Amino acid sequence: MTIPQYSDVQVGDELPLMKLRPIDRTMLALYAGASGDHNQIHIDTDFARKARMPDVFAHGMLSAAYLGHLLTHWVPQRQIRKLAVRFTGITQLGHIPHLTGRIAEKFEENGEQRVRLDIQCANQYGEPKLVGEAVVALA
């Protein structure tokens, strides 16, 4: 990983687009086990249909984890100062997460050079499912 330098980035610069594999049932079961979130709406089709959903769908926090993954492919985890997200849509089976980030601000705080990023997890159709911001320290 080549760690970006504060002097080399500008407001408006974008992180490399990260496309992940489609959401499937196996992924949801594995995430439920790893996270301890066994809410039936994410793993039981009959339960989801009784809740008037067409099928199970991804945990919102799975998309949040993906955004963390986007950041740690750009900088080491120790450089992340803030990660805040807001859920904006449901990630259905078959959706392909597309993770993006854009530098929105450069600033100094607590003796560090930092950037604020606008981040998003959308599906392959460009429909946002999770939006947020992150602050990272750069050298």
TrEMBL record:
Signal peptide: none
Domain (MaoC-like): residue spans on this chain: 13-94
Pfam family, one: MaoC_dehydratas
CDD domains to which the protein is assigned, alphabetical: SAV4209_like
InterPro entries: HotDog_dom_sf, MaoC-like_dom
Protein name: Dehydratase
Organism: Pseudomonas cavernae
